[in-house]
Design brief:
The chain has six helices and 53 strands. The chain is mainly β. Among the domains are: 132 residues, Orthogonal Bundle (Arc Repressor Mutant, subunit A), CATH 1.10.10; 96 residues; 234 residues, TolB, C-terminal domain (Neuraminidase, 6 Propeller). The strands form twelve sheets. The chain has a seven-stranded antiparallel beta sheet, with no helix packed on it. Strands 9, 30, 31, 32, 52 and 53 form a six-stranded antiparallel beta sheet that branches. It comes from Paludibaculum fermentans. Pfam families: PD40, Trans_reg_C. Keywords: DNA-binding, Membrane, Transmembrane, Transmembrane helix. Belongs to the TolB family.
Length: 761
């Protein structure tokens, strides 16, 4: 048989489907299926009861088609499958629709190996097109393996093992037999010794009976759980009963016992329990700007500062991870404002620090997680708005990187956001959060190139972070976030009226990135009230809500009005690559303005309507570009790094120096090419060039948000207003300067939840 793959059939009810030929039989009689429905059915059967996401279906079956073609094609394929199976969409026996996510095959399926002579002899072969399509899927994996130093840990053969003690094989790497891989039971390798050295092509066996219970449900915000080494306790950051300050707390698993660990007036966040169980490292916000890394002893509560770092606190993000030998801390960030973001390694005993990685200019590295066995660090590289990647950095046992970081290229996640990876206890799989299917879910995947992440849909949406204990328990952070659009009446504010803020657009979902039409009558903004994030409009008082786009992708947004109020430019990842699109202001046909394979996001019209400025990384880092609004060849505008341009009525444009959340704000005269630094405390995408000067939202001390103003006549920035709650990035202003619109967290609560025995060793 050599290296050929053994054919298999799927049996369910009176049906049998050949994975090799795409042939469907009912009671032994062939039922004809066209190539596309056959491929969709195969993907459903291969997932073994799991959800097949709409994005994966589009990438595999309708790659290159428009959104409309995909929607029509998918609906027809599913309808055809249900027709031949005599299934019903309302009361399904076979194919169940998962709203806004995809589909799954719910009937019991038996997987049967086909003897070789039957696998190559087809009684009545249908059109060969399905077989050709399947052969493309079955083609061998061509991704080269990565072998750091003497091990093959970062790119082992594609071993997709179950949750119950996965095995790894150092042997030859194979592509999964099917697009999503198959359960271990499928692989019947006759005469092969069944051991960890020969287990191949297995997927995680997801259970349907996970029991999600409360771990800590007090009002306020919690974040960054970290288990004790024995798994009996978890430390986390909480805003307190009065929600006035973040400190560290410890909760014992299985009890209601909660102990407050820190009591400083500053914000404490991102705790990491040491492997020896004796101390906890954490971040503490500085009295003005920046943060510092501390260690607190659990025996006597003594605190020791290790290092100052130029970070603005982001509660809920993970910045720290311990090496398993307890000697080193790895943190994400930078050592000074002029150095690139990256991962740094610090010797806890001496404080000696060195860079492990440095991100490309404009990118941000974050969320490091050391593998329990110490062979690697997983981390996230944020490369564009709504797009990030998980990378794995091989590590030497004595510290230092053993090679360059390896991006984990996972099918279907090319244009998605992924965050906060955490390792399973055997250092084999990664659990991570992603908004790929509109809402934030947890996913799990083998920590290797080309693996097929699986959705943990039974755990529910809204999951932002997770930690797995050494005993297999799972702690999760579930967020309940409601961001509404508010208006700040600038006339009342200038008269000293502290009640100048009123809500304009609200729901129990997200409304962000408001942009005011030039005539001052309309707002365009992002909202996910219909499921996916889409472009919506309303009157400036919040009435006459209208959905303008239906791109069907988690990240569609950044609306910008044309000067004549007739067209809205926006960005979307609906086609895989982030592009700039145009749509009539009242809704209608969507047209792509940019067409390259490089990122194109955050559009802004010029005052005369001739150009659309935007961000692109086609030179290797984010810069500001512009393109004729009628289409044409893009032109580079900025040369020292630029992100999210905002245009004025004159010749000046604003943009941030990079994609950092707290960033440097710059101005550029497009005629003289003179560039100026205006501020270093600006919130990303939250600035506006008005006639009298520049308005921007700044990050203040203690996590507060400030509205600042830089007069066009010159002078230092002055603070106009302190926002009562956390603001979302993005703001808009009316042309007359009388109304400022912004997103504000109307409700932001998070709970800690627990899944016992999530990972069974």
């Amino acid at each position: 048989m050599g290296s050929e793959r053994q054919p298999i059939n799927y049996q369910f009810g009176v049906f049998e489907f050949s994975a090799n030929t795409g042939e469907l039989r009912k009671n032994g009689i062939i039922v004809r299926l066209a190539p596309q429905p056959a491929l969709v059915l195969k993907m459903l059967l291969a997932q073994n009861g799991g959800i097949v996401c709409r994005e994966d279906l589009q990438l595999e079956v309708w790659k290159g088609d428009t959104i409309v073609d995909f929607e029509l094609g998918l609906n027809r394929c599913v309808a055809r499958i249900r027709s031949v199976l005599s299934d019903d969409a309302d009361t399904p026996r076979y194919v169940e629709t998962i709203p806004r996510l995809g589909y799954r095959f719910i009937a019991p399926v038996k997987i049967v190996p086909v003897p070789q002579r039957q696998g190559i002899q087809v009684a009545a072969a249908p059109d060969p097109a399905p077989a050709a399509a399947f052969e493309a899927i079955l083609a061998p994996e061509t991704t080269p393996e990565v072998v750091p130093q003497e091990s093959n840990r970062l790119a082992p053969p594609q071993v997709d093992a179950p949750l119950e003690g996965p095995s790894r094989s150092p042997g030859r790497k194979w592509r999964s037999i099917l697009f999503y891989g198959l359960p271990a039971a499928v692989l019947i390798l006759v005469g092969l010794f069944w051991s960890r050295h020969f287990v191949r092509n297995r997927t995680v066996q997801l259970r349907s009976d996970y029991s999600v219970g409360p771990l800590f449900s007090e009002p306020g915000q919690t974040g960054s759980p970290s288990f004790s080494p024995d798994g009996s306790k978890v430390v986390f950051s909480w805003s307190g009963s009065r929600q006035d300050n973040f400190d560290l707390y410890i909760r014992s698993i299985g009890t209601q016992d909660t102990t407050r660990l820190t009591k400083a007036p500053e914000t404490d966040y991102s705790p990491a329990w040491s492997p020896d169980g004796k101390s906890i490292a954490f971040c503490r916000a500085g009295p003005r700007d920046g943060s510092s890394i501390w260690v607190i002893s659990l025996s006597d509560g003594a605190e020791r500062k290790l290092i100052d770092v130029p970070w603005t606190p982001v509660v809920g993000s993970r910045f720290l991870t311990w090496s398993p030998d307890n000697r080193r801390l790895v943190f994400a960030g930078s050592m000074s404002e002029d150095k690139a973001s990256g991962l740094l390694e610090m010797e806890v005993a001496t404080g000696a620090t060195r860079y492990l990685t440095k991100a490309q200019a404009g990118s941000v590295e974050m969320h490091p997680a050391y593998a329990p066995d110490g062979h690697a660090i997983a981390f996230v590289r944020d490369i564009a708005r709504g797009i990030s990647r998980i990378l794995v950095l091989p590590m030497n046992p004595e510290g230092g990187a053993a090679g360059p970081p390896v991006p984990l290229s996972w099918p279907g996640f090319e244009s998605s956001n992924v965050a906060r990876p955490t390792w399973t206890p055997d250092s084999s799989y990664l659990l991570f959060a992603s908004n790929r299917n509109s809402e934030q879910y947890l996913w799990i995947a083998k920590a290797e190139q080309g693996a097929a992440p699986q959705l943990l849909s039974t755990l529910g949406p809204g999951l932002m972070d997770a930690a797995i204990s050494s005993t297999g328990d799972l702690a999760m952070v579930r967020e309940r976030l409601d961001i509404d659009i508010f208006k700040l009446d600038m006339d009342r504010l200038r008269r000293g009226d502290s009640t100048a803020t009123v809500p304009v657009v609200n729901s129990n979902r997200l409304e962000t990135y408001p942009n005011v039409s030039p005539d001052g009558l309309k707002l365009a903004f992002e909202s996910n009230r219909s499921g996916f994030t889409e472009i919506w409009t309303s009157n400036v008082d919040g009435t006459n809500l209208t959905q303008i786009t239906s791109m069907g992708h988690p990240i569609t947004g950044s609306p910008s009005w044309s000067p004549d109020n007739r067209t809205i430019a926006f960005d979307s990842r609906a086609g895989g690559v982030p592009r700039i699109y145009l749509v009539p202001a009242g809704g209608g046909k969507v047209e792509a303005l940019t067409s390259s394979n490089e990122m194109s996001v955050t559009p802004a019209w010029s005052a005369d309507g001739a150009w659309i400025y935007f961000t692109s990384d086609r030179t290797g880092r984010p810069e500001v570009w512009r393109i004729p609004s009628s289409g044409g060849t893009p032109q580079q505008v900025s040369t020292t790094g630029g992100f999210s341009p905002s245009t004025s009525a004159g010749k000046m444009i604003l943009y941030s120096a990079n994609r950092s959340w707290v960033t440097t704000l710059k101005s550029l005269n497009v005629e003289t090419r003179e560039e100026k630094v205006l501020a270093t405390d600006a919130i990303r995408r939250s600035y506006y060039p008005a006639a009298d000067g520049v308005y921007y939202i700044a990050a203040g001390a203690g996590g507060h948000f400030l509205l600042k103003f830089i007069p066009s006549a010159g002078g230092a920035a002055v603070t106009l207003y302190e926002f009562p709650r956390r603001t979302a990035e993005g703001m808009g202003m009316s042309r007359d300067g009388r109304s400022l619109f912004f997103g504000e967290a109307e409700q932001l609560n998070t709970d800690l939840q627990l899944v016992r025995d999530f990972w069974r060793n």
